[in-house]
User: Fold this.
Amino acid sequence: MSRLVRTAAELHAATDKGRRAVVMTMGALHEGHATLIRTAREHAGPDGSVAVTVFVNPLQFGAGEDLDRYPRTLDADLIVCQEAGADVVFAPSVDEVYPGGAPQVRLSAGPMGDVLEGAVRPGHFDGVLTVVAKLLHLTRPDVALFGQKDAQQLALIQRMVADLNFPVEIAPVPTVRETDGLALSSRNRYLGEADRGTALALSRALRAGEAALDGGPDAVRAAASAVLAGAAGATPPLELDYLALVDPATFAEVPAEHTGTAVLAVAARVGTTRLIDNVPLVIAGARS
Assistant:
């Protein structure tokens, strides 16, 4: 049975054994989160402990974003955690995480935090890194698992841990998709039938880009862009925020001659719902 705790003291008492693994969430859990928890169980082993944090972090929501609208489904989340193998669910209050109110000292995401998602949502990654740092201190894990769907967030957390010498392993977990290809997200519940049809253009664009790998970076971008351009005329239309082919270490756009690892990332709005997706690629170079 997954034990629900609200304070750091309760959490430490509940996870004081073996190898400790943590999965950080904002709740509204789905199969993607369940996959993270099951993978955490593998990392912790039978004698270790798996903690899941459920905390809607106000620092990472900007003006006009959906903090109040963000779904809060703790009872259902507890069932997901239990079935996936979590030992403890840490669902703290805002006062528990930020006991002095909004923190005056915060982490800065640096240049990587100013592009793509950071450009669309200024300050977002500063809020993400600040809460992840606090939750790493509070949960004290040996390993923390994060999904690759949030690729820029994952890259920034890996950089933070390396730059600031956090004594924790960061373990990426591949994106989980629904049978039609849509990446699992808590925001998918906002999509109506027509919205969902339009939203599928994101994963189709990524697959098209992946299929064009032999032509190099420009071919990847062109193939993905063609799919997204077609969806702009759908009903409802897809409103593109960005499509980018980036270096996974810096999230800067890769040049036309780039070879090696890259991430093809996309973000768009369908109606009132904003979705992101990506696929990791290895570019071998154009073939004649």
User: Anything to note?
Assistant: Strands lie at 3-5, 20-25, 49-54, 88-90, 143-147, 169-173, 238-246, 260-270, 273-283. The CA atoms of residues 97 and 134 lie 7 Å apart. The mean pLDDT is 95. Residues 187-283 form a domain with the Pantoate--beta-alanine Ligase; Chain: A,domain 2 fold (CATH 3.30.1300.10).
